Amino acid sequence: MATHSMIIPSSSSSSSSALAAAATSPFKETLPLFGRSLTFQRKSCFSQVRLRFFAEKHSQLESSNGCATNFASLQDSEDHLTEEHVTKGESTLSITVVGASGDLAKKKIFPALFALFYEGCLPQDFSVFGYARSKLTHEELRDMISSTLTCRIDQRENCADKMDQFLKRCFYHSGQYNSEEDFAELNTKLKEKEVGKLANRLYYLSIPPNIFVDVVRCASLRASSENGWTRVIVEKPFGRDSESSGELTRCLKQYLTEEQIFRIDHYLGKELVENLSVLRFSNLVFEPLWSRNYIRNVQLIFSEDFGTEGRGGYFDQYGIIRDIMQNHLLQILALFAMETPVSLDAEDIRSEKVKVLRSMKPLLLENVVVGQYKGHNKGGKTYPGYTDDPTVPNHSLTPTFAAAAMFINNARWDGVPFLMKAGKALHTRGAEIRVQFRHVPGNLYKKNFATNLDNATNELVIRVQPDEGIYLRINNKVPGLGMRLDRSDLNLLYRSRYPREIPDAYERLLLDAIEGERRLFIRSDELDAAWDLFTPALKELEEKKIIPELYPYGSRGPVGAHYLASKYNVRWGDLGEA
């Protein structure tokens, strides 16, 4: 697929006026960051999209290898473009959801696209195509996705009208994932919607990874935009280990450039994860403390209160380490631990994340505990075990729980354990980052905490989901005549402070992909570094056939996780909570 770098010529008066207008845009924000004021845009409405399209139309076009594109070939299909043309909607966006009949598309992608449309974040001229092997009509697709669309956003007026408008822009094309002819037919249908306009195309691959390359090959050869950009969003998993991930990347790059590939990890789109860098770099109270000098350990905890729920066949191929730790939790760790980037530019941020990953020691088997949930009776109800799932082999050793201790070999974090814990069928659902600070040297009040000095340490908790919030645990005197201390929370609960509903992570990531913002997507070298950390331990687990420790459905997980934490003089921070 061809991709173009767009540069607005400084000599263009219309370009200058557009940029001047952007400078006063209400969507520009100035943030005191890294010791200076940085101005950036929160891309959350159509004006940003239109400005980008305007910049692209006035650009000096370059091919993906940096060589000048044959401009005459573009002039055959377009007249000279001006800001007036852009304002009139002379560019169009086509979004194709490949695997449109699957659960992810129905439950997440189509609702996210509707939410963006409802808030005016999509261009004026856009269309959405579903592509899958199922034989459906346009109306059947619309009926299928209409039940998943909700007007959960604050602007609730004209909800039914908005749904109708959105559904009228949704179309369906049935075809095989490895058929160039079927994608050529899709291309014809896309062109009917794009006729006479600058055509930008976004493909979302909501399909199993074993058919990624077939779809990319067919779309690249037969359904790529001829005069605009083409981008592809790829869902995890990105391979099973370093070798398979590298092979997948090599195959994709036969047809795409790195700039066209958007590897999505939806956890990076969650509000509290995106807030990590703001919390750290724009608050003087935190940045000086963010090191081994004050932080004793960092815990990244993920838990689900349900099992595989019929997805056991898929899950059994990967397990909890590949499914959660190697991507979601490791990405959060990299954002948490990275050094201050040069700017908020996507490449600057991603480069700092890569530095963190390359500074880490590969995970050792001795620092891993694996578990698997078993059947359990609770409250008169029977909960099935993992191997009770009919799609799971009876003697499967795939872990549904894992705890791990990892370390970063750099000056900031040397010796600080980063503990990860992830599991299914646990007692609660949640995801959080816990930062436990060191003890106060020579604490005057240590006698008030008896022998357990851990009760005297401060703790910062960033709750990613549910009930998004940030709280700082401090020591406080209980009112009264005596000297009794208590641990209290300085609590920022998002639903109380910000009553407007938080957008779904897929909304943010889809909008960023449309606008070419790569900050929250995973670069290929970042992916390589992540797999290098986990592949040795994963191979050893499988070669040695390590038997996972069983734990009851609905419990806190295997006891071995607590022994692992105590090995580094750490107590899991979530033990004292329901």
From TrEMBL:
Q: In which pathway does it act?
A: Carbohydrate degradation; pentose phosphate pathway; D-ribulose 5-phosphate from D-glucose 6-phosphate (oxidative stage): step 1/3
Database matches in SUPFAM superfamilies: Glyceraldehyde-3-phosphate dehydrogenase-like, C-terminal domain, NAD(P)-binding Rossmann-fold domains
- Gene3D superfamilies, alphabetized: Dihydrodipicolinate Reductase, domain 2, NAD(P)-binding Rossmann-like Domain
Q: Which reaction does it catalyse?
A: D-glucose 6-phosphate + NADP(+) = 6-phospho-D-glucono-1,5-lactone + NADPH + H(+)
Q: Cite the Glucose-6-phosphate dehydrogenase NAD-binding domain residue spans from the record.
A: 97-275
Identify one Gene Ontology CC term for this UniProt entry: chloroplast stroma
* BP term (GO), one: pentose-phosphate shunt, oxidative branch
Alphabetized, the UniProt keywords read: Carbohydrate metabolism, Glucose metabolism, NADP, Oxidoreductase
Q: Which InterPro entries match?
A: G6P_DH (IPR001282), G6P_DH_AS (IPR019796), G6P_DH_C (IPR022675), G6P_DH_NAD-bd (IPR022674), NAD(P)-bd_dom_sf (IPR036291)
GO molecular function (one): NADP binding
What is the enzyme's main class? Answer: oxidoreductase
Role = Catalyzes the rate-limiting step of the oxidative pentose-phosphate pathway, which represents a route for the dissimilation of carbohydrates besides glycolysis. The main function of this enzyme is to provide reducing power (NADPH) and pentose phosphates for fatty acid and nucleic acid synthesis which are involved in membrane synthesis and cell division.
State the family named in the UniProt similarity comment for this chain: Belongs to the glucose-6-phosphate dehydrogenase family.
Q: Which PANTHER family match?
A: GLUCOSE-6-PHOSPHATE 1-DEHYDROGENASE 1, CHLOROPLASTIC, GLUCOSE-6-PHOSPHATE 1-DEHYDROGENASE G6PD
Designated name of the protein: Glucose-6-phosphate 1-dehydrogenase
